[in-house]
Fold this protein.
Amino acid sequence: MKVLGIAGSPRREGNSDTLLAEVLRGASAKGAETETVVLSKLKIKPCQHCDKCLADGCCVIQDDMHGIYKALENADVIILASPIQFMGPTAEMKAMMDRCQAMWARKYILKIPPLSPKKERKGYFISVGGRRIANLFEPSLVMVKTLFRILGVNYTGELLFSGIDGKGDIMKHPDALQQAFAAGQRLVEQDITQ
Ligand SMILES: Cc1cc2nc3c(=O)[nH]c(=O)nc-3n(C[C@H](O)[C@H](O)[C@H](O)COP(=O)(O)O)c2cc1C
């Protein structure tokens, strides 16, 4: 089983990176092959709304997003990790999501599968935010679930921590890392049909 982690924070080895690494460690402990893609290291231009993808389901912008398209295709489990910035995912994560407009075109305009239907894929979301407010993760959850629905990926859950702000604060949480490790194990163990 291939587990793809997409790290959306511009802060390297920050709170969401730490959680993602721990989820992947849990998945790897159950025998999964894991890969981490760090969006801030890549060049991913925002969608230009040129509508060229409506003709063939492919994005004409030649940049690192094409590596992500391939990685999404090959993954059995896709984990998006992004801290909250201004109540939503980071700009890096949002640019990547918007570039999946090509998949939207495949599904809704061209009526072809957005990703190869040969495998069933699972989706998972990891997030952290500095504030402690009730609806902190709601906008991001709507966006992430929408993306997974468009990709034809089964959304299976999330790991969310509020009140986590300074770099490394997640390490001070009593059981966040254990929760993350266990989530990674579960993602690999769980039968998709359950
Ligand atoms: C530009 C920016 C915007 C932010 N906006 C929010 C916000 O709207 N709500 C919130 O709770 N935290 C916000 N934060 C705080 C981050 O979510 C928090 O520091 C988080 O722990 C960063 O995670 P990371 O270490 O994985 O980057 C913001 C931080 C930055 C830099």
